[in-house]
Amino acid sequence: MSHDARLASLKIELPQPAAPAANYVPYVVSGNLVFVAGQITIWNGEVRYIGRVGDTLSLEDGVAAARLCGLNIIAQVRAACGGSLDRVKRCVKLGGFVNCTPDFTNQPQVINGASDLMVEVFGEAGKHARFAVGANVLPRGVAVEVDAIFEIA
Amino acid sequence: MSGRIEARLKELGLELPPAHQPVANYVGFVTVGRQIHVSGVGPTWGQTVRHKGKLGRELKLEDGYAAARLTALNLLAHVKVACGGDLDRIEGCVKLLCLVNAVPEFLEAHKVADGATDLLTELFGAEKRPARSATTAPSLPFDIAFEADGIFLIR
How many domains does chain A have? Predict the structure, then answer.
């Protein structure tokens, strides 16, 4: 099944790709790689999941926040590919930043929200390298930020 | 397999830890052409974390440096798998991201990260040193003292 067809069959809706917040671009295409800028928890302009995991937000909130970052990443990749995800060969890399308390050490499980989404949508091609790290604050106070590298045909 | 880099490791009295495969929906590395993108790893040996805690609190600079060195060995363990076991196929590390588990007052992330880049330099030579970012993080997965990911180039 093509990536577009799989997305439709899963009934996964993507947000509008967000415009950058400052003087940078949402993605850069270099050869067959797409570098996606850090995506936050925003749904069509509305910022969601503001807060800190381990404090004002639970682990489950963090996982949902990471999934929303992932949806924004896929929306940017689709835009980079001219409107179709079928050019995606591989999700190469995710970088996950979790706004959390200094004693919170379960960043991997939070970022699984984004990782699981990639495998749900792209199957084997969604299996990526990644890192997960804690941050003491993120832009606009959001819980999670994720950036990405994709390989396209 | 006994190659030039394996011999160099032996000279330095070093051994690569086993490449630890992630248990979630991601992988240890992804190959794109000649680039190997390696996932974030830490100062572990197999499943055992060897360096836990924060710099500027319970850990000293030397502890962080040792953690960074072991972390670099874990990156190489993945690259070795990507190279089909032949470390001599590694041209070098292109880019490293170094994350130091530290209190906000700790200002020496760059010196901790040298533990990783010094090791890579000892193995691959000064001309193959990577571009690098080093920063502190208020917390890291499983309270590891140090985390790094990397992009390596192979032939």
Answer: 1
Residues of B in contact with A130 (CB under 8 A): 26, 39-40, 149
Q: Which tokens in the block code for residue B46?
A: 């197999």
- Give the integer Cα–Cα distance in Å for A98 and A62: 8
| Full domain range(s) for residue A101 | 3-152
CB contact (8 A) between residue B104 and residue A116? no
Q: Report the pLDDT averaged over residues B93-118.
A: 97
Instruction: Specify whether the CB–CB gap between A40 and A69 falls below 8 A.
Output: yes
pTM greater than 0.90 (yes/no): yes
- What tokens were used for A44? 């069509």
User: Hey, what amino acid is at B46?
Assistant: G
Is residue A51 left, alpha or beta, with left meaning phi > 0 and alpha meaning psi from -120 to 50?
Answer: left
- How high does pLDDT run on average in chain A? 97
A149/B25 Cβ within 8 A? no
| DSSP letter assigned to residue B28 | S
The per-residue pLDDT for range B56-86, each reduced to its tens digit, is 999 999 999 999 999 999 999 999 999 999 9
ipTM for the predicted complex comes to 0.93
Q: What is the pLDDT of residues B86-98, one digit of tens each?
A: 999 999 999 999 9
What are B147's two structure tokens?
């985390």
CB B124 within 8 A of CB B154: no
Nearest CA in chain A to B146: A133
Judged by a CB distance cut-off of 8 A, whether residue A146 touches chain B is no
Instruction: Give the CATH number for residue A33.
Output: 3.30.1330.40
Task: Please tell me which of the candidates A126, A132, A136 has its beta carbon nearest to residue B138.
Answer: A136
**Which of A32, A100, A128 lies closest to B139 in CB terms?**
A100
